[in-house]
Amino acid sequence: MNADIYDAVEEAAKQLYIRALKVLPPDLKEALARARASETDESGRRFLDIMLENIAVAERDENLVCQDTGTVVFWLEVGDECAFNLARVTAAVRKGTERATVEHPLRPNAVHPLTRKNTMTNTGRHLPAMHYEFVPAAGAAGGSGASGGDPAADAVNGPALPGEQAPPDGLKLHCLPKGSGSENMSFLKMLIPADGVAGVKRFILECIVEAGPKPCPPTIVGVGLGGTADLCAALAKRAVLRPLGTHNDDPVVAALEDELLAAANELGIGPMGLGGRTTVLGVNIEHAHTHITQNPVAVNLQCWAARRASAVVTAAGDVTYGF
Amino acid sequence: MSDTTTADELRLTFPLTDLDALRELRAGQTLRIDGHVIGIRDATQIAMFDRGEKPAMDLTGAVLIHTAPNVRKLGSGRYEKVCIGTTTSARMNRFTRGLMEQYGVRAIIGKGGLLADSLPVLREFGGVYLAITGGAAALETTQIEEVEEVEFEELMPECLWKFRVRDFGPLVVAMDSHGESLYETVTAGARAKLEELVARL
Prior knowledge:
The structure holds 2 protein chains of 2 kinds. By secondary structure, chain A is α+β, with helices and mostly antiparallel strands. Chain A has 2 domains: about 5-25 and about 65-180 and about 305-320, no CATH class; about 180-300, no CATH class. Chain A has helices at about 5-20, 25-40, 40-60, 85-105, 150-155, 180-185, 195-210, 230-240, 250-265; strands spanning about 70-80, 130-135, 170-180, 185-190, 220-225, 280-285, 295-300, 310-315, 320. In chain A, the strands form 2 sheets. Chain A has a 5-stranded mixed beta sheet. Chain A has a 4-stranded mixed beta sheet with strand order 4-7-5-6. Chain A is globular. Chain B is of the alpha/beta class. Chain B has one domain: CATH 3.20.130.10. Chain B contains 5 helices and 9 strands, in the order ββαβββαβαβαββα. Chain B has helices spanning about 40-50, 95-105, 120-125, 135-140, 180-200, and strands at about 10-15, 30-40, 65, 70-75, 80-85, 105-110, 130, 145-150, 160-175. Chain B has a 5-stranded mixed β-barrel. Chain B has a two-stranded antiparallel sheet with strand order 4-5. In chain B, a hairpin with an 8-residue loop joins strand 8 and strand 9. The longest helix of chain B is centred in the C-terminal third of the chain and has 19 residues, at about 180-200. Chain B is globular, with a radius of gyration of 17 Å. Classes of the chains: A alpha+beta, B alpha/beta. The interface between A and B is large, with 55 and 51 residues.
């Protein structure tokens, strides 16, 4: 393995950050166009028109869709035979983020939480936020089989994120520059078992109402269910990475996604919170098993300008870009 | 001229010469702006109001926009636009009175609205809150002709910015000086619907 691999990762990280900010994924553009066609509120139609026009202007001018260059989040899916040194991959991702910020230039957003001093690079202590997950080899669930024949419970992870998969000897990088308007609308509640599924539904809908116009609706509602407080919040963020129109692989969870999508679009909050039937574009739920006493729910709202980009990096350093 | 321009849009030029000029505006009206728009943000207003740092820029009759832009530095105190858009206003709600009372500001452009306790301030000073399409920064950038001045550069990117604009909008009067907030109406409806949904699901 030569150093060029890490140069390739650094360049991919730089390109991904800029690409994510400039070109929105096709599933999102299609969802906004469908929403425009079915929106009945005059104000709602007008805002959706401007959103669609803005997407076209950003592509035409090769400019950023939104001025908020976000808090940079990278999600790495690592193949089971990956030979990359992940410490060096992490350093390369950080360097790529810094180069995108300085070389483009992009607005620097990362500040110390107490002194508010800006690093001017969009990197800093623990930034970019990095998540790692490992893709089991095809056909191997990876679990012990100890849970009595429930394959979903035996799997170490849930399924890989949709789209082109990380090669066994390489990795897939997802870049999610998360705007603060929507990230400030993040919620976690440690519900209890007696709150049941009804409590889960109520909490998620309450979050959408509480957020109201602030996260730039129509939003994608990322939901984490189960796990611990930290895992639950991370799953809500992972849910935002899933393309619109995809479902959780567990039919019980998938049914809840559809039910909540329909319910949320009865709230009347509408585009930019000024009325209309298009309040959310999708509800994506990711789940984990949890403790017998726990029923945690996390909500991570994503704005209509839902920026994400991905790249597959092979062991040879070849990079393929996608969304 | 944007594709989304329509005939029913009002046009206003800022800064205002008549500080009572916006009292006639009503929630729901749409307008576009020419002239100058002043960019301001959390850190700028914390400096102005919590630390008492007074900018040299005259804000009398001004329209502000809640923003921190992407810019390219050209030289000392000179910047060119890269991408300029609008941020969530509610975080800066507590500065509404100071801006209107001490500085003579009459209009604020933002997204997501100010809170209901800004309505009496708008009533007292004849001010309005104008909603822009959040996230539509690429389009907004095409309507900004030049970055003319900057103050509080040490707060980069949260400086006080003076932008010259043309056909800036469309903007919706979302909160007027007659006590009406479109956000309050929509939120009240959503809360009522929430109870109905929860009972049904």
